[in-house]
Request: fold
Amino acid sequence: MPKHNVIQSTGAFITLILFWCLGYGLSLLVALPAALLGLLSLFIGLLFLGRVPKALEHVSQFLLRHLSFFFIPPLVAAWFYAEQLGNQLWLFLFAIMLSTFVSLCLTSWLGQRFFGESNKTVSQDDEG
Amino acid sequence: MDWQSIIQLVSLEQLLWVSITLLVYVLAVWIFKYFSHNVLFHPIVIGAILIAGIGVLSATPLQDYPLFVSPINWMLGPVTVALAIPLYRQIRLIYAAGSKGMLVIILGGCVAPLLAIGWLGLLDFPDPVRLSVLTKSITTPLAVDTTNIIGGLPELAAGVVVITGILGVMLSQLIFKLTRCIDPRAQGLALGTVSHAIGTARAYQLDATAGAFATMALCVNGIITAIFLPFAFMLFG
Reply:
């Protein structure tokens, strides 16, 4: 990677950190998650700018592609709570399964009705 | 802060376990690719199993593990902020999906947590456990923060989010057949609304349009839920 790319990527990452800090500052005023407020501030910033700087685009793409990495520790930690639930663990898991199933049915059914109707020519041959 | 305390802040164990987690992640991604992106072999699942295995082999109490890898958690904030870029990129899709699309996202975003907490409400669960399912359909960084604010258990919430994501992807093929959902926009909306980032990755495998709509749904549902829940709890909690 050329030298100026490294500097630009570092700058883009620091931008993300600064917006998170801004979000943290705002979260002291409004009871919302700091990361959410940072996200919204950056979004508003981008709206004003009217484009996404290239380095910021690359860095965020890289980070979001590897989002899974950040969730390995919480999943390991979740295991302890699962153990504490003991016999009730299955009832708890059932709640997650049921709600996921129903909401997925609802959203896909509604979505298909809404979007399927808007271009009927495409959705005529849907049996396949 | 002097140097001594900075050195103490980043201990040897932390350095070691962060490196191990990084290596495990690289390996888990490789395994995921090897099994042609089968969601059962999702890097989060394989990664957590490998970490648990290493913990047992090295006789490290796993309770200490989250403490050792706290530097990873510091990074999560700025990474969440990066979601602003896909949101900005897909903003035209919010117009394209229109009010009907928003209705799908909002309904889906409400039904999933309400059903889960309703079911748990019938049974004898402690309140913090119940509250931890309210963020089940939003992406983990937002879910963890939001759960913290409303008084749930963030780690449990993270586990619930990951399970919801994987279940959603596993069930999606069957459900799309049941509901005859063939429009890529509708498929993307459903996957992004219910199964957040894990569903979005799946949607991109199906179709680029589905992926873009899933990204948009993930951002919209995450933001609306993360705004709505803390306010609702402030007013009624």
User: Anything to note?
Assistant: Chain A has a mean pLDDT of 84. Chain A has two domains: 1-65, 70-119. The first helix of chain A runs from residue 3 to 27. Chain A touches chain B through 76 residues (CB under 8 Å).
